[in-house]
Amino acid sequence: MLPLSGRRNSQWDRSPSSARTPLRHGRAHSHLRMGARCSRAQHPIFALQSQRASDAHLPAADAWRSTEPDSRMRLRTACCKCFRFQSTSAICDFIFLSLIWCFWTAMLPVVVVHGGAGHIPKERAELATIGVKEAARTGYVILEKGGSAMDAVVEAVAVMENNPRFNAGRGSVLNVKGEVEMDAMVMDGRNLASGAVSAVRRIANPVYLARLVMEKTKHLCLTAEGASKFARSMGVPEVLEESLITDYAKMRWKKNLEPDANPVECQMGKMGTVGAVAVDKDGNIACATSTGGMINKMEGRVGDTPCVGCGGYADNNIGAVSPTGHGEAIMKVTLSRLILFHMEQGKTAEEASDLALTYMKERVDGLGGVVVVDPKGTWTARFSSLQMVWAAAQQGELHYGVYRDENVVEPVQENI
After folding, report:
1. Contacts of 416 (CB under 8 A, 6+ apart)
2. Where is this region: Disordered (predicted)?
3. Whose CB among 11, 189, 209, 321 lies 3.0–4.6 Å from 336's, allowing a Cys bridge?
């Protein structure tokens, strides 16, 4: 089995390991061992949450009705005792349901972003980490103010498109002719609406254009000159192509023009596709992904990013995924939808990600990474490559990392 690396959400960690989960300032959750919720497991409220974990997307009343009658009575009685009630009346049901609902929504809102997977030089990894932290903070502030998951993922991705350290927007890699062609997509988990653009040029933020495709057309994807015409009709300004090209991108383009160059291998040495997933305070889920594609790709090449189910997927009933890695491999296994399929079958976000990434490696020899979130706010960042830069914001804390098992935690509002 391929060893996978990445960050698990410490509050919902289900790894078979019994190691303690480190938090900032050297503290550790001694009661939250991986694979169990030790001290919480005996409490009736947490016991019901554990029992109904697979139905967390249901309204609280539905979850209550689907619980076994004996369990309902025991839990309701326990709740009554906690509040010094002597009967099991309707008011106790109401209090109990309120507690369950509060517990289930305590993890919301949440946003998780990635800035690409591969083997990244240390100095570039440090700068990219700053970039994903900024993107996660941007999305989280929007969510905390009551903004939608769609608003959060689009703005988080736009922050990374504007950062030349990433392969998206400004900083995109060049095709074989030395030109920039970009792909982007968004998806709304409420109604499975999606919008995408492919092979677009001279657009500073393709993710904004992808959202316009979703909201202003009956189509899911527009490409090349058709996408450019649509952008002009929507008043989206075009920029000079030179403003999107960095010296680093030129250097890598020239290097890969050599006859013995391997663009696929070289691609894993630069920060790749950027993306974000989020759940807002209302429980709605969304994803967004954007990329400059593959180094020295053929003109007109389109990768996984604008393809629904490959470059991203969001469904309020299951969760959301945004991937990064070798686009052709991701398309062959429809990576994003494959992960959500495993989650539909009862796997956690982490387990589903590991299964899908392992399958992609074994079946098509593809490496990559993903950020995933479920309707409860449980999130994970997993990758089969050597590194992936990622950040997550939840409950006032900012988690981030690049290397295997790395998880640094600081306040979300730090340095803002």
Report:
1. 137
2. 1-29
3. 321
